[in-house]
Amino acid sequence: MMRLYKRSQPSKFWIYAAPLLAVVLTFLSGLLLFALVGVSVPDAVYAFFVEPLSDRYALAELGVKAAPLIMIGVALSVGFRAGVWNIGAEGQLIVGAIAGSAVALKFYEVDAIWVLPLMCAAGVAGGMFWAAIPALLRSVTNASEILTSLMLTYVAALLLSYMVHGPMRDPDGFNFPESRLFHDAATLPLLLDGTRLHVGFAAALIIVLVVWIFMSRTMAGFSLLVAGAAPRAGVFAGFGKHRAVWFSLLFAGGVAGLAGLFEVAGPIGQLLPGISPGYGFSAIIVAFVGRLHPVGAMFAGLLLAWSYLGGEAAQISLNLPVAVTNVFQGLLLFYLLAADVLILYRFTPEVVTPASGSLNTDTVS
Amino acid sequence: MSNKPVQSLQPLLSLKGISKSFPGCLANDSIDLDIQQNEIHALLGQNGAGKSTLVKIMYGLLQPDKGEMTWQGNPLTVRSPAHARRLGIAMVFQHFSLFDSLTVLENIKLGLVGSDNHQSSRQLREEVLSLSERYGLPLAPDKHTYTLSVGEKQRIEILRCLLQSPQLLIMDEPTSVLTPQEVDALFVTLRNLRDDGVAILYISHKLQEIRSLCDRATILRNGVKVAVADPTKESATSLARLMIGDSADREFTDSQPSQSLTGTTLKVRNLSLWPNNNFAINLHDINFDVVPGEILGIAGVAGNGQDELMQVLSGETPVDRDVLQLNFNVCADAELSVSKSITKKIGHLKPGARRKLGLGVIPEERLGQATVPSMSLAENTLLTGFRRLPLAPGGWIKKRRLRNFTGQLLENYNVVYGDLNDAVTSLSGGNLQKLIVGREIEQQPSVLIVSQPTWGVDAGAAAQIRHKLREMAADGVAVLVISQDLDELLEVSTHIMAICAGRTSRVYPSAELDAATIGILMGGDTIESTHKVDAAPVLDGDHDASV
User: Fold this and answer.
1) Rounded to 5 degrees, what are φ and ψ at B434?
2) Closest CB to A219 among B315, B370, B397
3) Residue to test with chain A: of B276, B307, B349, B383, most A Cβ within 10 A
4) SS3 letters across B127-177
5) Could you read off the pLDDT tens digit of each residue along chain B, which spans 547 residues?
C-alpha cells in the first residue's frame, strides 16, 4: 500500500512536471480510448495529433484557435491568482462579440479606418459590462461570482440568440439567424496570406507579455497576489477589499469581449448563433494547465487549440463524434488536478508495523 | 448550601507530573491535578498557559511525554477520545460538531451511533426530554439545528455528553460564545450536575465566572501549575495575579525621556462602535491621547474589545473622520520653543493613507494579517514597506532595491533566515515578529501601534523587541501597546489604561500601578474607590482620558 504524506514545502519540481505528466497521461488514455471504440490506433494518432501540425495552413489554424484561448486564459489566470473565480468568460466573450458586431452593422459599408478600432472598443466594453454585473453583486451583496458569472453565460447565449433572430438578422438573409457578413473595413487584417491567421494572435502574445510584466513588476499586480493568498493581509496593507474583485472581473471581461470581437471580425466574419466552441470555458483549463502564469497559459492555449483541431480532424477522417474534443479536455483537467497532489504530497510505501508484519524483516529496531 | 468537596476522598481523576512538549515549547511542565467527585474544578490560565494541552491529554487526544494518571485510584492511560467516553469522561468543545440541516434529535442520535446503547427513537426522545428537563436544558427535539442560537446548540452538545452518563464533564471555554443570560442558565445546569455527582472541569480565563461557579481552581502559567486555590475565597485581583504572574522582577526604568516638543500625537475622540457581528465587542465612548515619547499600554483580558479597537486604529474598520486625529507638532522656532500644530482628521482614511501619514501598525495576527504566509521574506517586506520607503516608486517594484533593503533589515534585526526567497512560514515565531517589527520601524512612523508585541516570542527576541519600542519612544514616537502580558506592559509603558467590555479606564502613569491594581481595572472597576491612588495627581494635562 502507498500512503500520502504532506511535504514540508511545495515541490518545485512537480509544479512544472505535473502539467507534463498530465499531458502524457491524457495522451495514453486517448490511445486506450481509441482502441476501445475500435478505431485503428495509428490512424487516430495521426488524425488527432499529427494532422493539425502538418502544414503551414494547419499551423495557422492552430494560431486562430489558440488566440482566444491564450487571451482569455491569461486574463482569467490574473483573477484566479487574486482569488476571484470568474467562470463566465464565455458569456463575456459573447456579449463582447454582440457589442462589436453592433458597431460593424451600424457602420455597414462605411469604409473608414476607425471602424475596426471602434468595434474593438465596443467589444471590450461589452465584455466588461457583462463582468461588471458579478463584480457588483459580489462587492455589494457578497454573492459568489462563481455562480453569478456562470449563470450570466446562459443569459448571454440567449441574448445572442435573440439578436441573430431579431434586431441583427440579415435583412436579405432569407430569415436565416445570421447577421450580414461584415464588410472589409470591419474585418481583421491577416498576419499570413492564404490563411485565416489574424492580428488577434499577435494581440494575444502582447497580452501575455503585458500581464507577465504587470503581475511580476507592479504594485497593482502584487496587490492582486496578496488579495488571493491572504485576503486579510491585503486589507491590513490597505489594498482595499473589493479592488481585486473589480479589477479581475473587468480585466478578464474586457479581454474576453475583445476575443469575442476577434472571432466575429476574424475567422467568422459575421454574427452567428454559435460563435464560440466554448473558448471561455476551455480557457479555465488553459489557465490552470499554464500554472496561472502568462507564459504557461500561452503554451497551454496552444495545447488546447491542438485538441480542438485534433477533434475536428478525427471527426472528418475517422467519423468520431465532436465530443472527443471535450473528452480530451476533460481528461487533461482531470489528470492535472490529480497530478497536482504531488506538489503538496509525496507517495511513500506504507511501513508495516512490527506487531502485525512478522514477515517484515527490515524494520528498524 | 453547596456540597463542598471533601478533600480526604480519593480523587476521581488524578494527574501526577504530567509533561508534554512540542517542538520549541514545553506546553505542560510536570503538572499535578486532582479532580474530586462533586466539584466544579476550574482550570485557569491565560492563552498559551497549557490548559488545552492538559485537557487534550485527559481526553485522549494527546499522549503525555511523562507523568501518570489515575482514575478512581487505578492507573489510567487514555488511548483515544472514544476510550475516554467509555471510561466516563465527556467533553464539550468550544467548536460544536453539529449538522445544521438535521434536527436536534437526529444530531444527538448521530453522536450515539456505534456506542453500546442501541435504543429506539422513541426511547431516545424520552430520555433526551427527561434529561433536558432535569438539568434545565430546554430544547425542542424536532427543531432544525440551523434555527437554533449558539446557546441552544451548546445544549445539544451537553445533552449528547449526558446521555453517556459521564462521571467527569470537561467544558472548554463554554461561555466564550454565550450571552449573559445563556451563561446564567448554563451555570444552573452545571450546579445541578455537580449536585448529582458529576465532576466538572471548567476551563476559562474569565475570573468572575470562576469565582461565582467553581469550588476549586488549578491555575496554570507558562505550562506550570502555580497554585490550587479556592476561588470563592480569592478576589479577582489575587486570581489575576496568580494567572498573570507577579511583577516583582520587573525592571524599573524611571528615567523616562521627557516628552519632546515636536512629534505627532494620536488622539482618539468619542470612539463608539457597534460591529455588525454577533461575536464582536461593542466599543463605548473611548477617548485617549498618545503623545510623542510616550508608550501607552492598554491592558485587558482577551476579547474585551482589543481586536475591534485595533481594527479601528489600523484603518481596517473605517470610522467617522473626527474620531481619530493626528496632531502634528512642528517646531517653528526652536529657540523660542514656539511650536505650530496641525491637526489632521484620519478616522475615515484607509490603512494605506494612514501609513503615508506616519501611522505604523503591528497587528496581533502575524501570519495571514501582518504577512502573507505563502510569500517570500522580500515580498512580505514590500507588503507595507512600499508606503513610506522607495521600494516601488510610481507603482513599479524595484526588485534589487527590495532585496538589498530586506537583507539589511533582516541583518539589523538579527533575524535568522535561509534565503530572501524563502516563504515567510520558514521563520520561527520570534524571527517572524522581528521581521514585522523591523519592517514597521524602518518606515520611521511617527505613531506606532502594536498588539501583543511579544506573544509566543522567545525571551531573547522579546527583550530585543521591547528595547526597540523604548528606543522608538525615546526618539519622539508616540507608541501604543495593546497586550495581555502585564509584566510586559509594566516594563515598557510610561502610561497604562485598561479595557474591559469595550470601555477603557482612565490613563495612569505606570509607576503608580502594580499588577494587582491593573487587575482591578481589567475587571472594569475603578481604583479610586478602593485604592489610595486618588490622593496623588494621577494625570498630567496631556493625559486626561475623560474629555
Assistant:
1) -65, -40
2) B397
3) B383
4) HHHHHHHHCCCCCCCCCEHHHCCHHHHHHHHHHHHHCCCCCEEEEECHHHH
5) 444 444 446 889 999 999 988 765 678 889 999 999 889 999 988 766 788 889 999 999 889 999 999 998 899 899 888 889 888 999 988 778 888 888 998 888 887 755 545 567 788 888 888 888 888 888 888 888 888 877 788 888 888 888 888 999 999 888 766 666 778 888 998 999 999 889 999 988 777 788 889 999 999 888 889 889 898 888 777 777 777 665 433 333 333 444 444 688 899 999 999 877 666 788 999 999 999 989 999 998 777 889 899 999 999 988 999 999 998 876 555 555 556 778 899 999 999 999 999 999 999 889 999 999 999 999 999 999 999 999 999 999 999 999 999 999 999 998 888 889 888 988 887 889 999 999 999 999 999 999 999 887 777 788 889 999 999 998 889 999 998 888 889 889 999 999 988 899 999 998 888 877 887 888 777 766 544 443 333 333 344 333 3
Measure in Å the smallest separation between the Cα of A217 and chain B Cα atoms: 5
The secondary structure element, H or E, covering residue A107 is none
Residues 303-342 of B with CB under 8 A from A: 314-316
Question: Distance between CA A339 and CA A123 in Å, rounded?
Answer: 37
Phi, psi of A262 (to 5 degrees): -60, -35
Residue found under cell 507608541: B479
Q: CA of B360: which chain A residue's CA is closest?
A: A237
Contact A50, A313 (CB under 8 A): no
* E strands in B235-323: 263-273, 283-290, 295-299
Matching residue, cell 480585466? A251
Q: How far apart are the first and last CA of chain A?
A: 22
H or E element, residue B39:
none
CB B148 within 8 A of CB B114: no
3-state secondary structure of A194: coil
Check A237 against B371: CB less than 8 A apart.
no
The CATH number assigned to the domain with range B263-375+440-543 reads 3.40.50.300
By CA distance, what is A218's nearest residue in B?
Answer: B396
CB of B390 closer than 8 Å to CB of B442: no
The CATH class of A11-348 is: mainly alpha
- DSSP 8-state assignment for residue B418: S
CA-based torsion, A296, A298, A299, A301: positive or negative: positive
Query: Which ipTM was obtained for this model?
Result: 0.84
Cα→Cα distances A250→A179, A221, A253, B208, B260, Å: 28, 14, 5, 54, 50
Inter-chain touch A230–B371, beta carbons under 8 Å: yes
| A-interface mutation test, from B312, B361, B369, most A Cβ less than 10 A away | B369
Partner-chain contact A233 B423, CB within 8 Å: no
Give how far Cα A277 sits from Cα of A52, A71, A93, A205, A260, Å. 17, 15, 11, 21, 11
Residue A5's H or E segment, with its range, is strand A2-6
CATH superfamily, domain B13-244, is P-loop containing nucleotide triphosphate hydrolases (3.40.50.300)
Query: What is the spatial distance between Cα B6 and Cα B101, in angstroms, rounded to a whole number?
Result: 45
SS (H, E, C) B356-401: HCCEEEECCCCECCCECCCCEHHHHHHHHHCCCCCCCHHHECCHHH
Contact B57, B83 (CB under 8 A): no
Distance in Å, alpha carbon of B395 to nearest chain A alpha carbon: 5
Looking at CA atoms only, how far is residue A236 from chain B in angstroms? 6
Residues in Cβ contact with B387 at an 8 Å cutoff, skipping those fewer than 6 apart: A238, B352, B355, B356, B443
Number of Cβ within a 10 Å radius of residue A145? 25
Q: Where are the domains of chain B?
A: 13-244, 263-375+440-543
